[in-house]
Here is the input.
Amino acid sequence: MVVPTFYVLTKQVITVTIHLEFLIEMAEITVNIIDREGVNHELVGPTDMNMNVMELCKAYELPVLGECGGMAMCATCQCYLESETELPEQSDAELDMLDQAFFVKPNSRLGCLIHLSEEIDGIVLRLAPEHH
Here is the structure.
């Protein structure tokens, strides 16, 4: 990779070109989302951008509302964990929000609180039904 040329002004102009080789390895994981029609979508997301599952679903234009913008205040990103993937224990805020949601199951989670990390690579989640 060639970095832009820098010019150093002295009595004459000296051109300095710096050549650097970078090994940039963008860490990506796969998140499997089963939509409300039962279709599996294999999503690929970066682990270095602090994204969550709700944001990834929206980026792929899946029907996830995320009305509160990822603040864990609406449950419109509710999904069901369908793999054996270990997730952090549910917080009181997540449990409180799910307590007010529709279609809650023992494996219900809020997509906005599942952050993309190497630990969840291959996770399988099913979108919860929309409530009207």
